[in-house]
């Protein structure tokens, strides 16, 4: 499978490395050329430096032949726009988008985007842990 990952921060870089370790072909896009260091010197894919909101950058990374696309920048707006571009303009079959705002994540899920919302995951995990604590008969619960 060929995957384009946009955003080479902590999340995007680790997703790219895992995909490569699983035997997939991966190209990564990031605005910051120094982000390439997060992938390690042995990263076999291509790294394209530039703004993913530009179609020339997306195309340089091979979006038109991608089987999957991961939008993992630190900006919800950027992620949501490029995810829709990958899905609608380039007909990428599997598009996954990181969205930090839970309300926006729900809205874009309704629009058919596969969203990952770490904020919602943290809220759910913390709430569940507190419920378990309270159910154990903790003082003051």
Note the beta-strand portion: 15-25%
- What is the CATH H-level superfamily? NAD(P)-binding Rossmann-like Domain
- Give a count of the beta strands, DSSP E runs of length 2 or more: 6
SS-derived structural category:
alpha/beta
What is the helix content? 40-55%
CATH class: Alpha Beta
The CATH topology assignment is Rossmann fold
How many domains in all?
A: 1
The ordered H/E elements are: EHEEHEHEHEH
Based on Cα principal axes, name the global outline. globular
Compute the number of helices.
5
Radius of gyration: 17 Å
What do these coordinates show?
This protein has 141 residues and is an alpha/beta fold. It has one domain: NAD(P)-binding Rossmann-like Domain (Rossmann fold, 3-Layer(aba) Sandwich). 41% of the residues lie in helices and 18% in strands. Helix 3 (76-88) links the parallel strand 4 (68-71) and strand 5. The protein is globular. The termini are far apart. The model has no long low-confidence stretch (mean pLDDT 94).
SSE arrangement:
Elements: E1 2-6, H1 10-21, E2 25-30, E3 47-49, H2 55-60, E4 68-71, H3 76-88, E5 94-98, H4 102-110, E6 114-116, H5 118-135
Parallel strand pairs: 1-2, 1-4, 2-3, 4-5, 5-6
Offer a quick outline of the entry.
This protein is α/β, with parallel strands linked by helices.
Could you list some keywords that capture this structure?
single chain, 18% strand, 5 helices, Rossmann fold, 6-stranded parallel β-sheet, alpha/beta, 141 residues, 6 strands
């Amino acid at each position: 499978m060929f995957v384009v990952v946009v955003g080479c921060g902590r999340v995007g870089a680790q997703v790219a490395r895992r995909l490569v370790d699983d035997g997939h072909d991966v190209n990564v896009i990031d605005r910051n050329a120094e982000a390439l260091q997060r992938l390690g010197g042995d990263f076999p894919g291509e790294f394209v430096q530039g703004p993913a909101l530009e179609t020339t950058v997306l195309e340089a990374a091979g979006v038109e032949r991608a089987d999957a696309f991961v939008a993992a920048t630190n900006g919800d707006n950027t992620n949501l726009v490029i995810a829709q571009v990958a899905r609608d303009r380039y007909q990428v079959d599997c598009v996954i988008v990181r969205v930090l705002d839970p309300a926006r994540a729900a809205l874009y899920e309704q629009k058919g985007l596969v969203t990952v919302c770490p904020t919602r995951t943290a809220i759910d995990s913390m709430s569940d842990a507190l419920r378990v604590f309270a159910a154990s008969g903790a003082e003051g619960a």
